[in-house]
Amino acid sequence: MTDTTAAPDRAGATRRRGPLVALLTAQYLSAFGNAITIVTIPLYVLQTTGSTATTGLAGFIGALPLIFAGAAGGVLVDRFGGRRLSVLSDLSAGVLVLLVPLLAATAGLPLPLLLVLLFARTVVATPATAARMALLKPVIEGAGARLESANSWYQAAPRLGLVAGAPLAGVLIAATDSVVGMYVDAATFLIAAGLVAFAVPLAPSRKTASGEQGAAAADGPGFFGQLREGMALVKTMPVIGAMTAFVVVTNFLDDAFTPLFLPTYAETVLHDSAAMGWFLGAVGIGAIAGTFLYGPASRSFLSNRRYTLFGCFAAVSVLRLMLYFEPNAIGVTVICFLVGVAGGPLNPMLSTVMLERVPEELRGRVFGLTGAMALTSAPLGVLTAGWLVDLAGLRVPMLCFALVYLVLIAVSWRRPGLRAMDEPVDGGTARAAEADEKPVLHTGPDTPNEEVATR
After folding, report:
1. Distance CA 403, CA 320 (A)
2. Domains and CATH numbers, the chain
3. Is 197 in contact with 87 (CB distance < 8 Å)?
4. Measured CA distances, 308 to 297, 350, 422, 441, 442 (Å)
5. What is the pLDDT of residues 347-403, one digit of tens each?
6. Predicted local distance difference test score (pLDDT) of residue 116
C-alpha cells in the first residue's frame, strides 16, 4: 500500500519540476549562445572588413540597445506575459542571427545591413532576460524548490556559458570559420524558445484572469504610463531602490576590472599578454563556484543577506587591493579566482529579494528597469579608469577603485532600505507565494511600510 501511494507522489513531483528544468535549460542555452556570439561576431567582422575600427563600431552598435531595450522589454513582459514574450524574443533573435551567415553566403551582406541585424538582434533578444525572470518564481514554487537555491542555478548560467562557450567558439573558428558559431547561436535561441513554449505553463493568474487582464491593459495606462508605474514602484520600495543604487556604483567599479585593469596589468607589469586568458578563466570559474555555493550557504553562514552583500564586496575590495603590490602571474590568477568566488553569491541573492517583494504583474517592468539602470554606469567606469591610468599609471587607479568599495560599504551600512533585505515578507517567517496577491512590503525599522496597489 505504501509503495503504490508513493509512486504517484514522486511522479507528481517530477512533473512539477519539469517547467523549472525547462526554464533553466533555456537560460543556459541562451547564455551559451551569447558567449559564442561574443567571440564569433567580432572575428567575423574583422575577417570580412579587415578593419579594427569597423569591428569596434559593430561591437558598439550591438551593445547600444542594452541601454533601453531592457526597460522597454520589461513593460512588454507585463503587458503580454513572460512566456509569450520569452518565446517571441528568442525566436526573433534566432532568425536574425541566422540571417547573417545565410545572407553572407547567398545574396551578400553589406556592412550597413550587418550593423542593422546586430542592432536588431540585441533589441529583440534583451527582453527575454526580464521575461524569464518573470516566469521564474511560479515554476520554482511549483517544483517545491527554495528561491535561493533555484536562483543560484539560474544566475550561474551567464558565467558558465561564458566559460564553456568562449573556448568552444575558439575551437569552432579554428576548425571551420566564424560563420559556424552563428549557426550554433541561432540554434540555441530556437531551442530555448521551444522549451519555454511547450514545457513552461502559463502562470495561474494569467490563465484564470486573462480576460480581466486584457481589459485592464486596454483601459489602463499605455506603454509609457506602465513604464512610469514601474519607476514609481521602485521609488516606493526602498529595498529595491537601495539595492539598485548599490549595484549601479559597484558596476562602475567592476566593469573597469576585467576589460581594462587586468589586460593592462598583464601587458605592463607581467609583460605577458597571454596571462590575460588565465585571469579571465580564473574569474569565471570562481564566479561559477561562488554562485552555485550560495544555495546551500544561504541556509547557514550566508543567511543574513545584508551582511552577505557587504561581506562579499569587502572581500572583493581586499583582494583587489593586493594587486597594488604587483604579485606575479600565479598570484594574480589566484586573486582573480577568489574575486569570482566572493562575487558569486551576489546576483542570486539580489534577484531572490526582488522576486520575493515585487508583485507578479510588475516584475517585468521592475527587472527591466533595474537591469537597464545597472548597465548605465559600466561604460563610464571603463572610460574613467582608462583616463586615470593614462594620467597616473596603473597602481594608483587600481588602489582607488578598490578603496571605493570600502567607502561605499561604510556609507551604506545604516541604510534602512538595505536592512530590509532580511525583513520577512507579509510578516511571516516563510517567504510565501501569497505575498504576490497582497504585497505589503516591510522596508525597515526607520521607514513606514508601503502597500503597493496592483491592478
Report:
1. 9
2. 18-199 (1.20.1250.20), 237-424+438-444 (1.20.1250.20)
3. yes
4. 10, 10, 11, 21, 20
5. 899 888 888 888 777 777 777 777 777 777 777 787 788 888 888 888 998 999 999
6. 92
